[in-house]
Amino acid sequence: MTEKHAFRHILLAVYGVLACAFILAPLLITVVNSFSSVAYNVFPPEGLSFRWYVNLAAQSEFYVAGLRSIILALSTMAVTLTIGTMAAYALVRFRFIGRGAVNGLLMAPVVIPNIAIGVAMFMFIVRLGIVGHYSNLLVTHALVSLPFVVVIVSVGFTNFDWSLEEAARDLGAGPFATFFRVLMPQIRTNLIIGGAFAFITSFDQVETTLFLVRPDQNTLPVEMFLYLQKWQDPTISALAVVLIVFAAFLLVLLSLALRGRQQIASVLRAERH
Amino acid sequence: MTAAADTLAEPRPRVPQRRRRRYGAILLLGPALILSLYALILPMLVFLRYSFYRFERGRLIEDWSFDAYIDFFTDPFYLQIGLESLQIALTVTVISVLISYPLAYCLWRLNRPSLQKWLALIIFSPIMVSVVVRSYGWQVVLSDQGVVNQVLLGLGIFSEPARILYTALAVIIGLVHVFLPFAVFPMYSSMTRLDPALREAAYDLGAGWFSFFWRIALPRTLPGVIAGAQVCFTLALGSFVTASLLGGGRVQVFPIEVYRATAEINWPTASVANLVLLILAIVSVMIFSRLARLVED
């Protein structure tokens, strides 16, 4: 019995290791490839060099695009956190006619393919005559990331002990003071995770951006995507390594921000008090 | 809040509702609703309108005609695209579920917290890396002289490099990889809702691990499986970046056709293809939520 038990566990462990290999393979191989000395994809690399990093350093459009993407992602995050938290509060706290429909409408961008949103928005802004305007990107990215913020913050509000709010109001705190000093500290983890989702959704957005961006003002993923349509040298590998390091940096930042908080999984679902 | 108190069909905690000040709801929902109206509803109406335009000799003609619809539904090329899109999305969904369920189980069963943390990090952190980067990674792995081919050649399975890149297979592999975290998460989350006492009870009553899995664990985690499958299916149907980088123009799916037609100013065709894509997505969501309800009963 015990031996069969152990065998099953070994099998499961082997499976876990294989699955991890599958998940990490393309990332690790990209890292190796970025040090390749030749321009074509060959494994193992024929020689090692830093030439793709040197090449990357010379391509200033990637930095500018990267900066643009970060600014856009931060703006998207600020907008969605603000209006998403407001909406989540209303959805959790009030019962009103059409609540289900409002919720469905706000969640719709999750199930609608992003490319459909991008094309529709493109045709719409052509009609309005505002092609190339920055607001188009911000509005569309906010729309696409809003559902994540609404869901994650709603869970925080659902788990919130509302007698605290009543107490604060009874003691004379105004609605804003109550929100910032009583509610916000309690749902901080949800706000951080929701914000991170909004940032990543915007930072990684290609399908909608592709239609809305001015050709001389590409965001980073679009710039990379278009570069890959033309060339396939390991410059993109070098850039990918930079982005993987950036993702790791964000992850460290996120775990620092969430240090000492409850299990993240429990923050993401409604619990009984 | 302990796991044991966390029963399966827990009712949502009752949040006291404030009946007064209903205008508060409108005020708070206002900005989000205006955003949805401006960036979703109005654009959808505009693109629907364009589907009734005509496209002649490279020009758009304002009209109320069904030309684009008739062209779309009678051209075998679009039928082919539809079939390929559905086929790829279905294959990706089935493979993702088959790979993710045991992986979610691994994550759930690991009893060393530090190991569990690392496994979760490996599974979920790829979300932080751009889809463009991950698809490019698969380009490198699957290319003619890439790792996979070198291994296959080295083992003597093939005598010459297999063409994997720029085929539907490459797209499927890439999509499974990109969606894996989205499939694992709902499954894992449904597993954490399983009461550990159930396991003890089943084993005490003499059930083997398989009958525990088949008769108790699986039925109770099926909602997670369906949620994961739904995410994979809708995302796969709408995938553009991975399909175009790993398909290299040789794999024709709806999003690629929508992009191509839009770039060629054939907006009526782009709109019809877009509408079909939208309807497919909505129908699949309806089917999956129907399945979810069936499973929960």
Please sum up the structure shown.
By secondary structure, chain A is mainly alpha-helical. Chain A is 75% helix and 0% strand. Chain B has a two-stranded antiparallel ribbon.
Which keywords apply here?
heterodimer; A: 273 residues; mainly alpha; MetI-like fold; B: 297 residues; two-stranded antiparallel sheet; 12 helices; disordered N terminus
Taking all Cα atoms into account, the compactness measure Rg of chain A is 23 Å
Give the overall shape of chain A, derived from the CA principal axes: globular
pLDDT < 50 runs, ≥5 residues of chain A: none
Q: What name goes with the CATH superfamily of chain A?
A: MetI-like
> Under the CATH scheme, which class of chain B?
Mainly Alpha
Structural class of chain B: mainly alpha
Global structural class of chain A: mainly alpha
CATH fold type of chain A:
MetI-like fold
Share in β-strands of chain A: under 5%
Anisotropy-based shape of chain B: globular
Strand content of chain B is: under 5%
How many strands, what sense, and barrel or not for the largest sheet of chain A? Answer: none
> What's the number of extended β-strand segments of chain B?
2
Q: What is the CATH homology-level superfamily of chain B?
A: MetI-like
Which pair of chains forms the biggest interface, and how many residues does each contribute? A-B, 95 and 89 residues
H/E element sequence of chain A = HHHHHHHHHHHHH
Distance between the termini of chain A: 40 Å
Order of helices and strands of chain B: HEEHHHHHHHHHHH
Percent range for helical residues of chain B?
over 70%
The count of helical stretches of chain B stands at 12
How many distinct domains of chain B?
Answer: 1
